[in-house]
Specification:
8 helices; 2 domains; 243 residues; eight-stranded parallel sheet; 13% strand; alpha/beta
Length: 243
């Protein structure tokens, strides 16, 4: 018995939906390696990396640096080029305090909407602005929103950058309750430990929309994580996981 027109249409629609689902996973899922290799986390379950996107961001970044210094913790900052260019002294301070510096593009576009040439230019321009501000040439790259095509990762690799994702997040860009953010982060950490992995926390000290974003909840959540894990974990930069 044949499927008939309706049956073939339904079968085709199912295949198309499945293909779209695989494509979305490949392009957006933090752990996906389908479109190219990315660094997610190290192999030691007791290692934690605090990573911050979208800065530098004025007082928030300054307070964060003070908090990290009090705990003698080094973190990883994925800077937006235009933000670093607007606040070079603050960007340089991040580097001078021993934190790892990453490239988060020049203007924080959604790279899934850009072709190969425009993608490469965003990464190149971001890297130059960050290096000019900090005195450090970034060796790591995080695509905005986590979105990447094969040409995104290929451009980063050709520019000598290791692409970095994450495996724990607190949704701090949309959550105002610090305890909720910290709880999500620690839940992700416990899941990673059960799976035998280190934890790479995704957080934000700034916003891609504008300077001056309020990240008080993020600061308080980071303080809670540092207090909770000071005796149980080793805080590292992402660079320490690169072979």
């Amino acid at each position: 018995m044949g499927l008939g027109d309706a049956g073939w249409w339904a079968a085709g629609a199912s295949v198309s939906a499945a293909a779209i689902g695989v494509g979305v996973y490949a392009a957006m899922a933090p752990g996906s390696q389908i479109f190219g290799r990315t660094l997610v986390a190290g192999r030691n379950p007791r290692e934690l990396a605090l990573t911050f996107d979208d800065g530098p961001n004025g007082d928030t970044t300054e307070q964060l640096l003070e908090l990290l210094a009090r705990h003698n913790v080094r973190a990883t900052f994925f800077l937006v080029g235009r933000c670093a260019a607007a606040q070079p002294a603050l960007a340089r301070r991040i580097a001078e305090q021993g934190h790892a510096i990453g490239n988060h593009t020049m203007t924080h576009p959604h790279l899934l909407a850009l072709g190969p040439a425009a993608t490469r230019q965003e990464i190149v321009d971001g890297g130059k602005a960050i290096a000019d501000a900090t005195g450090v040439e970034p060796k790591i790259f995080r695509p905005p929103f986590g979105g990447r095509w094969p040409h995104t990762l290929r451009a980063a690799q050709e520019l000598g950058l290791t692409s970095v994702m994450w495996n724990a997040l607190g949704f701090d860009w949309r959550e105002a309750d610090a305890s909720v953010i910290a709880s999500r982060l620690l839940h992700g950490m416990r899941s990673n430990r059960t799976a035998g992995r280190a934890t790479n926390f995704l957080l934000h000290d700034g916003s891609h929309r504008s300077l001056g974003a309020n990240r008080e909840a993020t600061l308080a959540a980071v303080a809670q994580v540092l207090q909770a894990e000071a005796r149980h974990s080793r805080f590292v930069t992402v660079n320490e996981w690169i072979d």
